[in-house]
UniProtKB/TrEMBL annotation:
Top-level taxon of the source organism: Eukaryota
Membrane topology per record: Lipid-anchor; GPI-anchor
Signal peptide range: 1-23
Transmembrane annotation, as ranges: 674-694
Xref: Pfam families: GSDH
Name assigned to this protein: Glucose/Sorbosone dehydrogenase
Keyword line: Cell membrane, Glycoprotein, GPI-anchor, Lipoprotein, Membrane, Oxidoreductase, PQQ, Signal, Transmembrane, Transmembrane helix
Main localisation: membrane
One cellular component (GO) term of this entry: plasma membrane
Native source organism of the sequence: Arabidopsis thaliana x Arabidopsis arenosa
Keyword Transmembrane helix: yes
Length: 695
């Protein structure tokens, strides 16, 4: 086992989910807390905190200007001011309003547990004490009427009673929220014993197709979309667990065929697809793919190697016989509305673009990633590699003006006019979410959410705890990593490869100083030597947190694999909600009653997955492995004679129907904002050996 320490925790609107089960440190500006070497001078925080020394100094000046003469009140107000530095300040100041200067104060009248009544203590200690520039002079979030006298300095003059005061500033600490008790929030200090490593994964084969993407139908039914690298999308019915069924897919009737627009080769093709959260109502869906501008006039984007990033495309060496930016990465929007009055019932769509969301020329022919997915906030996340060329020679990943080696976050619901797009210098038809990190880091391009990635190959939001945004990032020479993505996070490449410093052979684009970084290191990963004695053949494929009821012995674990099928890992978070993971390499085998014969590993009786291109998750939260040898699904351990004391093989499992409501977490999100040709399959399987993510 190897233990990796997380430094990051992604933002999300915590009120929609059970905090006690997954609360994570997060600052009020949606960034991860940073590490400080010693206790701050004014506020009593050390280790991970949401304040740097300058912010700590500013809080001290603000406190001194209040000129509080009473020692008891002075202590209370100082603790309230310093709550901005608390690693859980995002939840303490959960309205994220510029006007919210006071954290949610623990109030016994609104809490069913034994939390300290700090709101009453604040009132009783400070009600008759003068406070210049009082924090309490404005009502918060409309939770109480206006204070009696906005110009007064005493609580008793500002508020008519303790009841009014605590109605405005008080709140409960419960399963869904935390409140401020006058001391740093202390969570995640129990449950230090990790779950037992799984005895193995039991798989069944339910399809022969070779796919790169799987997306469950947004209507919550037991259907999913599968796409191939050449650009064909199928809508398949998924069989129930233990039914003995296989994928219900008609190879002669795809949902949509985009092959006319897509350039398909060993390094290129359709890399991602995403369906709008409201697809059942609006029919909108999106494809991410590559095109060749020498063959298609619609392939016309700006080159990512340009003067803004100190790159001259004329000086780039042609790669594999192609010119710089000959190949482009594209996100295009399509609709199912033209084929059905009810998009959720549509069985096919027209391959005509509704809108070009994004187009950008690629400097080289590898490392362009390309996955897209909608986050729980309703925005579109776009994973982009460093552009290739071998060890990112132009240091695009660390260049804040380059979109290469980044995760982007785009708003595709609010499209600016053509003149606005041109004025803002956007790469297509999208707008910028107002809380993207460029608001705090003026050097960043506005599209950027996170930097320092090499080639992120498969990312996912945890369906039970969407603050966990996991991305696998393919390594260069020695290490494959899994990162926990946070707003504005820098994941180190090309200064670091995984946890270790990286030394490129050449750097025509310059280097980034180690001292200038505050890198976020991987939470999981593996060395190349663990899967290949030569240390060369390794490439990570990111997966999912397992949230199905089918195999309770891997419940809550993050499952990922190596592309070559040499290993599957289960990451166990320990202590719970800490961001620290213990990883266990686990075996995998084929169920004896698999509805389709599994592929055997040559010379052995074991299961051969071939190449593990991707993972998928359906609306039941069952996990799938999309491989060159077919589609595999995780099933009950007992079907492979694996021991799992938690398994109840007779438990009935609820299956969502096409008319059923989405999961509770999906509802929360709304509030927050087959076989398809043996020759193609064989060609995809062989060609992807050299896929850009490997190099």
């Amino acid at each position: 086992m190897t233990l990796h320490r997380s430094l990051v925790f992604f933002f999300l609107f915590l009120s929609c989910f059970s905090l006690s089960s997954w609360a994570l440190p997060l600052c009020s500006d949606s960034r991860a807390p940073s590490e400080v070497n010693s206790t701050l001078s004014f506020c009593p925080y050390k280790g991970k905190t949401c304040c740097n020394t300058m912010e700590d100094s500013n809080l001290m000046k603000q406190f001194q200007a209040m000129n509080i003469s009473d020692k008891g009140c002075s202590s209370v107000v100082k603790s309230i001011l310093c709550a901005k530095c608390d690693p859980f300040s995002s939840d303490l100041f959960r309205d994220n309003s510029d006007q919210q200067s006071v954290p949610i104060l623990c109030n016994s009248t609104s809490s069913a547990n034994s939390t300290k009544d700090f709101c009453s203590e604040t009132w009783e200690t400070c009600q008759n004490v003068s406070i210049s520039g009082s924090l309490f002079a404005a009502s918060l979030q409309g939770r109480a009427g206006a204070p009696a006298n906005n110009n007064a300095s005493k609580l008793a003059d500002l508020w008519q009673s303790k009841t009014d005061f605590c109605s405005a500033f008080g709140g409960a600490s419960s399963n869904e929220t935390v409140c401020f008790s006058g001391e740093p929030v202390a969570l995640n200090d129990k449950d230090t014993t990790p779950d037992k490593a799984p005895s193995g994964l039991c798989l069944e084969k339910i399809g022969n197709g070779s796919y790169l993407n799987m997306v469950p139908h947004p209507d919550g039914s037991n259907r999913a979309f599968f796409s191939t690298q050449p650009g064909v999308v199928f809508l398949a019915g998924i069989p129930d667990q233990d039914s003995g069924g296989v994928l219900d897919v008609d190879p002669s009737s795809p949902f949509v065929d985009l092959t006319d627009e897509i350039h398909f080769d060993t390094e290129f093709g359709m890399m991602g697809m995403a369906f709008h959260p409201k697809f059942a109502q609006n029919g909108r869906f999106f494809a991410s793919f590559n095109c060749d501008k020498s063959k298609w006039p619609g392939c016309t984007g700006r080159c990512s190697c340009n003067s803004d990033v100190n790159c001259d495309p004329s000086k780039l060496t042609p790669d594999s016989g192609s010119q710089p930016c000959q190949f482009q990465t594209v996100i295009a929007e399509y609709t199912a509305n033209g084929t059905s009055s009810d998009p959720s019932k549509a069985k096919n769509a027209k391959p005509t673009e509704v809108r070009r969301i994004f187009t950008m020329g690629l400097p080289f022919t590898s490392h362009h990633a390309g996955q897209i997915l909608f986050g729980p906030d309703g925005y579109l996340y776009f994973m982009m590699g460093d552009g290739g060329g071998g060890a990112d020679p132009y240091n695009f990943s660390q260049n804040k003006k380059s979109l290469l080696g980044k995760i982007m976050r785009l708003d595709v619901d609010n499209i600016p006019s053509a003149s606005e797009i041109s004025k803002m210098g956007l790469w297509g038809n999208y707008s910028i979410p107002k809380d993207n990190p460029f608001r705090e880091d003026k050097e960043l391009e506005p599209e950027i959410w996170a930097v320092g990635l090499r080639n992120p190959w498969r990312c996912s939001f945890d369906s039970s705890r969407p603050s966990y945004f996991m991305c696998a990032d393919v390594g260069q020479d020695t290490y494959e990593e899994v990162d926990l993505i946070t707003k504005g996070g820098n994941y180190g490449w090309r200064v670091y490869e995984g946890p270790d410093l990286f030394h490129p052979d050449s750097s025509p684009g310059g280097n980034t100083s180690v001292k200038s970084l505050n890198p976020i290191f991987p939470v999981m990963g593996y060395n190349h030597s663990e899967v290949d004695s030569s240390g060369k053949s390794a490439s990570i494929t990111g997966g999912y947190f397992y949230r199905s009821e089918t195999d309770p012995c891997i419940a809550g674990m993050y499952v990922y694999a190596d592309l070559y099928g040499n290993g599957v890992w289960a990451g166990i978070e320990t202590p719970a909600n800490s961001g620290n993971f213990v990883t266990n390499r686990t075996t995998f085998s084929c169920a004896g009653d698999s509805p389709m014969k599994c592929s055997d590993s040559p010379g052995t009786s074991g299961l051969s997955l071939g190449y593990v291109f991707s993972f998928g998750e359906d609306n039941n939260k069952d996990i799938y492995l999309l491989t060159s040898n077919g589609v595999y699904r995780v099933v009950r351990p007992s079907r492979c004679n694996l021991t799992c004391s938690k398994e109840n093989s007779t438990a009935a499992r609820r299956k969502p129907s096409p008319s059923s409501s989405p999961s509770s977490s999906s509802s929360c999100y709304k509030h927050i904002n087959g076989f398809h040709g043996s020759l193609v399959v064989l060609f995809v399987s062989l060609s992807l050996i050299l896929l850009g993510l490997l190099n």
